[in-house]
Amino acid sequence: MNADPMPRGFLATAAPMRWVLWVALVLLTGVRAATNAPPAYEFHPGSPDGLGKWYLGREIAHYMTHQGAPWLERPEREEEERPSRLMAALEIQPGQTVADVGAGSGYFTWRLAQAVGPRGRVYATDIQPEMLSLLRTNMTQRGLTNVVPVLGDTHDPHLPTNAIDLILMVDVYHEFDHPYEMTAGLVRALKPGGRLVLVEYRGEERWIPIKPLHKLTELQVRKELAESALHPLMFVTNRTELPRQHVLVFRKTD
Ligand SMILES: C[S@@+](CC[C@H](N)C(=O)[O-])C[C@H]1O[C@@H](n2cnc3c(N)ncnc32)[C@H](O)[C@@H]1O
Questions:
Q1: 253 in helix, strand or coil?
Q2: Comparing 83-97, 136-150, 175-189, 224-238, which segment has the lowest mean pLDDT?
Q3: Contact 109/103 with Cβ under 8 angstroms?
Q4: Which of 109, 145, 171, 173 has the fewest CB atoms within 10 Å, measured from its CB?
C-alpha cells in the first residue's frame, strides 16, 4: 500500500525539483555564511612593534605593558592630548553608566567618574591585572567610589549587556588582539543609542611622534567597524579638535 499522501505523478516530477531546491539552499546558506563571516586574520612577519597578525590590511600593535604606565601619566599629556577638551566634547551626563575600555592606570577613568557623579558608574576594563591595580590605587587616592574595575580578555570586554551609555577607548583599539570579537562585545554592552568613542593618534599625519602601528587613519577605523559583528553602528562625527588624535564616535542603532 502506498502510504505517501501525495499523488505519484507529483512525486515523479517533484523529486528532481527538490534536488534543485536543495542545491540552491545549500549554495545560498554558504553565500550567507560567507558574507556574515568575520574577515579572516592573516599572519605573516611584520614590524617589531606588531603581532605579525593583520586585520583588513593593518598589522595589530603589541599592547603597551604596565611598565609603560608612567608614560600614560606624563605631565606633557595635558598639552599633547587636551583631555579636558575631549571630556567636554563627550557631553557625559550625571548618573550615566560609562566604560573606560583599556583604562590603563586610569588617566581617563577618574575624569569619567567625576563626570557621571555619585549616581553614575564607570566600568574600567583592562587585560593586565597590574594596570587595574594601579588604577585602583589611583581611584582610592582620589576618593572615587563609583568605579568598577573589570579584568577583560582579548576576545571579550566582560561588560554587562545593553547597559552602557558611552564606551571610551583612548589609544586602545589598535592594540586589540581580536578587534572583530572585541567590537562585537562592546556593541553588546552598549544600550541602544549608546556611543562608542575611539580616540586614536592620527595615522594620516607623519609628524605625530608615535610609532606607526600605534596610530590609525580614519579610513581604516571606518573600514574595520563597518565589519562589526552586529552592524548596528553608525558613524557620527570626528569634529572634536585635538592636537594629535582622532575622535571617532559611533552610535549603536536599535
Ligand atoms: C596605551 S594604553 C592606554 C591606556 C588609557 N586608555 C590611557 O589613555 O591612559 C592601552 C591599554 O589598553 C589595554 N588593552 C589592550 N588590549 C585590550 C583589550 N582587548 N581589552 C582591554 N584592554 C586592552 C592595555 O593593557 C593597555 O593598558
A1: coil
A2: 224-238
A3: yes
A4: 145
Distances (CA, A) of 104 to 82, 107, 130: 18, 7, 9
User: Other C-beta atoms within 10 Å of 48: how many?
Assistant: 8
> What is the CA(89)–ligand 1 centre distance, in A?
21
| pTM, 2 dp | 0.86
- Residues in contact with ligand 1 (CB, 6 Å cut-off): 63-64, 72, 101-104, 107-108, 125-128, 131, 152, 154, 157, 170-172, 175-176, 182
Nearest CA to ligand 1 atom 8: 170
Residues 6+ apart with CB under 8 A from 5: none
Cα 202 to Cα 171, 208, 219, 237, 245, distances in angstroms = 10, 8, 11, 15, 5
